[in-house]
Design brief:
By secondary structure, the chain is an alpha+beta fold. Helices cover about 30% and strands about 25% of the residues. It contains 14 helices and 23 strands. A seven-stranded mixed sheet has the order 3-9-10-16-13-12-11, with helices on both faces. It has a five-stranded mixed sheet with strand order 20-19-21-22-23, with helices on both faces. A hairpin with a 2-residue loop joins strand 17 and strand 18. Helix 2 crosses helix 10. The longest helix has 20 residues. The protein is globular, with a radius of gyration of 25 Å. Bound molecules: adenosine-5'-triphosphate (ATP). Adenosine-5'-triphosphate (ATP) binds next to strand 10, strand 13, strand 16 and helix 10.
């Protein structure tokens, strides 16, 4: 399959463009094109040694925020493959589609609702194919779900879907969770996992891919309380991006779904959008979904799904507030937002200002020089720090170069071992953002770094 052809050079105020992010990700081992040795597979990407750490750290930060910090939210890990009735009940079999048009001449396929944007980008005024000028077909609805077959016979009865969202795994387990854990409404179920969509127009690196990961939470509430709780979740989710992920507030905003975009069952829906180098686009959806989901599953499985409220003995189908964030999209946002090119001593320093909680490597450890036992001492310090942090040991090249290499992957702290370490048992602690260096005792170094992480705020 052909890879994305268009270059993306639009630069934000800190020097980040999609081209630069893609190149840094490849060069330093964050993200690689999938199956690259075969020419790549469009819309799929592989996470390298640093990318997998970044993704895992974001996922853990989200889990800590949602599940650990709320005593009324529990976790779940449902299977990717689900009973096919799930997707009939959810409405995905019938409605989860994009309008597509094909060029009759060059056969390129476009999303009809993206054509206007493509024409504007390329300064095209004609209604024909933006690639070759050929005639386009009328729009046809194309379902985004990937299908496969389960069992030994590949007939229509064995068709199953790769889930296009994680949410349905939560709805179908609502009763299990209520029956087996001590949750009471209002309560939430959180889940992180893979989702698959046969996206036709994929572009912008890992922004929109066919295989991606979501971090979703469904909050079950008593009908009538949903508006207040919706506002609460809207505020909490925005605060998470700003305060826990350290995303610049001026690059985040809410965007409300207008009547055309609003799903027929949704009461109100807001997106949290981020200002990508290619413009404002979605990062997370927050939706007030009424009793549609549990109501439909109750109807399709033949047994109502209700909740008996111990407060007043009433029985009802709970309403749902959903917070649906893209994990892989959050990786992209974290990279773009952290990326800065800064002028330092007649040079350009490229630095990723990751929040230390999500930085792939937390501490770089260097001996000032290799000789006189400093390398051995530095290795010993690094081994001790490893118990608490993801560390990286580097003894190659000038110390300034080693700092720059750590800056480029967003390592918030570096520890340098020198002659004073031998004599006075102290080390140099260097801060990525300010480049300040302070002398600190070797004893208690882990605690000091932990304190710095807790106190971190992006200047
Ligand atoms: P879009 O309008 O961008 O296609 P959507 O409104 O269909 O997205 P939702 O179904 O609300 O998206 O999914 C919730 C979140 O999952 C999105 O905010 C996004 O972060 C993520 N997401 C959805 N589709 C993709 C995809 N193809 N690739 C990567 N992340 C995705």
């Amino acid at each position: 399959m052909a890879k994305e052809k268009r270059s993306n050079t639009a630069v934000n105020e800190h020097g980040a463009s999609m081209d630069k992010i893609v190149s840094l990700c490849k060069r330093r081992g964050f993200v690689y094109p999938s199956s690259e040795i075969y020419g790549g597979l469009s819309a799929t990407w592989d996470y390298g040694p640093l990318g997998v750490e970044l993704k895992k750290n974001i996922q853990e930060a989200w889990w800590k925020e949602m599940v650990r910090r709320h005593d009324n939210i529990v976790g779940l890990d449902a299977a990717i493959m689900m009973h096919p009735r799930t997707w009939e009940a959810s409405g995905h079999v019938e409605n989860f589609s994009d309008p597509l048009v094909d060029c009759k001449k060059c056969k390129t396929r476009f999303r009809a609702d993206h054509l206007e944007e493509i024409r504007a980008e390329r300064n095209i005024s004609h209604p024909n194919c933006p690639e070759c000028g050929g005639e386009l077909t009328e729009p046809r609805q194309f379902n985004l779900m990937f299908t496969t077959h389960m069992g030994p016979v590949a007939d229509s009865g064995s068709v199953i879907y790769l889930r296009p969202e994680t949410a349905q795994g939560i709805f179908v387990n609502f009763k299990n969770v209520v029956d087996t854990s001590r949750v009471q409404i209002p309560f939430g179920i959180a889940q992180v996992g893979k989702a698959f969509r046969n996206e036709i127009t994929t572009k912008n690196f890992i922004f929109r891919t066919c295989e991606f990961e979501q971090m979703e939470m469904q909050y079950f509430v008593k009908p009538g309380t949903e508006d207040e709780l919706f506002d609460e979740w809207k505020a909490k989710r925005m605060a998470w991006y700003r305060e826990r992920l350290g995303i610049l507030p001026e690059r985040l905003r809410f965007s409300e779904h207008g009547p055309d975009e609003l799903a027929h069952y949704a009461k109100v829906a807001f997106d949290i959008q981020y200002l990508y180098p290619f413009g404002w686009q979605e990062l997370e959806g927050i939706h007030s979904r009424t009793d549609y989901d549990l109501g439909r599953h109750g109807e399709y499985c033949g047994k109502e799904i209700t909740y008996l409220d111990p407060d007043d003995n009433s029985r009802y189908v709970p309403y749902v507030i959903e917070t649906s964030s893209g994990l892989t999209r959050s990786v992209l946002v974290s990279l773009i937002d952290a990326y800065h090119e800064e002028a330092v001593e007649d040079e350009t320093r490229t630095v990723l200002h990751f929040h230390p909680d999500i930085a792939p490597v937390k501490v770089g450890v260097f001996p000032l020089v290799k000789k006189d036992g400093l390398a051995e001492l530095a290795q010993k310090v690094e081994l001790e720090l490893r118990e608490d942090f993801f560390t990286f040991y580097d003894q190659g090249g000038a110390i300034g170069r080693r700092y720059r290499r750590m800056d480029e992957i967003g390592t918030p702290f570096c520890v340098t071992i020198d002659y004073e370490t031998k004599d006075k048992h102290s080390v140099t602690l260097r801060f990525r953002d300010s480049m300040a260096q302070v002398r600190v005792p070797l004893a208690g170094l882990s605690d000091r770094i932990r304190q710095e992480i807790r106190a971190y705020s992006r200047a």
